[in-house]
Amino acid sequence: MSIATTHKKPAKSTTRTRIPKSIKAGILGGQMLTGQALLIDMQAYHKKVAATPESAMAFLTRLGVMTSDGKAKKLIRG
Questions:
Q1: What's the domain count of the chain?
Q2: Per-state percent for the chain, helix, strand, coil, to nearest 5
């Protein structure tokens, strides 16, 4: 007996950027943004993240480049 499997075609790549829901994009509520709207959203998020040292550290921790106690993680092992 053989088990038949169906394979879906991979999605076509696009030049549009999808904003993750975790960021909670304010302009279009997480929809795909393009052009000037994307730049405006990115600038707004930058201001939000860079507003205080605490928010910057929280961002770097979520990004995975800083530990929760404020030390830089070693990203390249060797």
A1: 1
A2: 35, 5, 60
Confirm whether 73 is domain-assigned. no
Residue range(s) defining the domain that contains residue 51: 19-67
Q: What is the pLDDT of residues 13-72, one digit of tens each?
A: 555 656 555 555 455 555 778 889 889 989 999 999 999 999 999 999 999 999 989 899
Query: Helix, strand or coil for residue 66?
Result: strand
**CB contact burial 4-32 (16+ within 10 A = b; e otherwise):** eeeeeeeeeeeeeeebeeeeebeeeeeee
Model-level pTM? 0.52
Residue 29 placed within a domain: yes
